[in-house]
Amino acid sequence: MPGATLHALRRSYVTRLLQAGVPLEVVAKLVGHAHIGTTVKHYRWIGDVDLRAGVAKLRMSSAA
Asked: What are the tens digits of pLDDT across the range 27-46?
């Protein structure tokens, strides 16, 4: 990907793993974190995105 930094690719990788339902423990190991807390600290915003998407789906299903 032209212009993509290593950090951006890593973030994309972790995001896709978590959104695919890969357990946090596995994601932490795949990216080389010794502790799950490190993964949560650096990627906790992903949960916020998923929560917003879930609420949007709920609103859409209520409107139908």
From this structure: 999 999 999 899 888 887 66
